[in-house]
UniProtKB/TrEMBL annotation:
Gene Ontology terms: biological process: isopentenyl diphosphate biosynthetic process, methylerythritol 4-phosphate pathway; terpenoid biosynthetic process
Protein name: 4-diphosphocytidyl-2-C-methyl-D-erythritol kinase
Binding locations of ATP: P92, V93, A94, A95, G96, M97, A98, G99, G100, S101, S102
Segments forming domain GHMP kinase C-terminal: 196-269
NCBIfam families to which the protein is assigned, alphabetical: ispE, PRK14608.1
Domain of life: Bacteria
Function: Catalyzes the phosphorylation of the position 2 hydroxy group of 4-diphosphocytidyl-2C-methyl-D-erythritol.
Catalytic activity annotation: 4-CDP-2-C-methyl-D-erythritol + ATP = 4-CDP-2-C-methyl-D-erythritol 2-phosphate + ADP + H(+)
Residue intervals of the GHMP kinase N-terminal domain: 64-142
Coiled-coil annotated spans: none
Gene name of this polypeptide: ispE
InterPro entries documented for this protein: GHMP_kinase_C_dom, GHMP_kinase_C_sf, GHMP_kinase_N_dom, IspE, Ribosomal_Su5_D2-typ_SF, Ribsml_uS5_D2-typ_fold_subgr
Stated family: Belongs to the GHMP kinase family. IspE subfamily.
Length: 293
């Protein structure tokens, strides 16, 4: 079984407060894009999970979210056979694009299918939150409002057709550090999440992009000014809006024209501001599930 683990971007990211358990209450609009890692999963007669990865610094034991996801289902259903999983990563690591969470989500889907466990999408999402707050969304995919710590999901209409340019500078940002360093008093502007949802419903891409916002941006940009430089370059070259995804440092630009996006990608590559440059589009859940391709 060969499955795609798709990346996500945050069209809007707001923090409402900190909970007693130390987690933050968030309100986010999530969107899956056509950038992905690949999981190849095979059943084996020998019990256990054998995981390999194409990058030497990726852990292949219980620290890996793919391993954790597979282990949860195999223990719960007392699976006697084993698994051989090959993970090929293309989504940048520690980039604010939920690469690890999407890998785990795809492992949940794959293990459910390969052993015919019969779990529904909702039942998979209930188990997925044990691995990480973004994992249930990565099972669900598409355009969604995420609340709570990110696990309360409401599907919203498909985002209007557009093109997405990804630019990740050669730095990494710890999600834990980003949350620990943000203070509610320091947030001077909250994105208009409700307004964005109305614009998506009306298919008004331009109006939606002008309401986009990420409360992590100011603090992360102060640490890494290159993020602002990438944003400016994208907007100077035709992006309706460029913004940092998640806790960063990846920047994405939204374009209404494929040629403009490709031209901007060429400029960004020449600038050498970004280590990873990737031109793509949004994932259309209604256009067929790419998970099996």
């Amino acid at each position: 079984m060969r499955l795609r683990a798709l990346a996500k971007i945050n069209l809007g990211l707001d923090i409402l407060g900190k909970r007693a358990d130390g987690y933050h209450e968030v309100r986010m609009i999530m969107q899956t894009i056509q950038m992905y890692d690949v999981l190849e999963i095979r059943k084996t007669r020998k019990p256990g999970i054998f995981l390999t990865a194409n990058l030497p610094y990726i852990p292949t034991d219980g620290r890996n979210l793919v391993y954790k996801a597979a282990d949860i289902l195999m223990k719960e259903f007392q699976v006697k056979e084993g698994l051989n999983i090959k993970l090929t990563k293309s989504i940048p690591v520690a980039a604010g694009m939920a690469g690890g969470s999407s890998d785990a989500a795809t492992a949940f889907v794959g293990v459910n299918r390969i052993f015919n466990l019969g779990l529904t999408e909702e039942e998979l999402k209930e188990r997925a939150v044990q691995v990480g707050a973004d994992v249930p969304y990565c099972i669900m995919r598409g355009t969604a409002l995420a609340e709570g710590i990110g696990e309360k999901l409401t599907r919203i209409p498909q985002m209007p057709k557009c093109y997405v340019l990804i630019g990740k500078p050669g730095v990494s940002v710890s999600t834990r550090m980003a949350y620990e360093s943000i203070s509610m008093e320091g947030i001077d502007r909250h994105p208009d999440i409700d307004g964005m949802i109305r614009d998506i419903e009306k298919r008004d891409l331009l109006s939606m992009t002008q309401k986009m916002g990420n409360v992590f941006e100011p603090g992360i940009i102060r640490r890494y000014p290159v993020i602002q430089k990438i944003k400016d370059l994208m907007e100077e070259n035709g992006a309706l809006k460029a913004m940092m995804s998640g806790s960063g440092p990846t920047v994405f630009g939204i374009f209404d024209d494929r040629d403009k996006m490709r031209a901007a990608a060429a400029v960004l590559r020449r600038s050498r501001l970004a280590k990873t440059v990737f031109a793509t589009t949004i994932y259309n859940r209604n256009g067929g599930d790419t998970n099996d391709k």
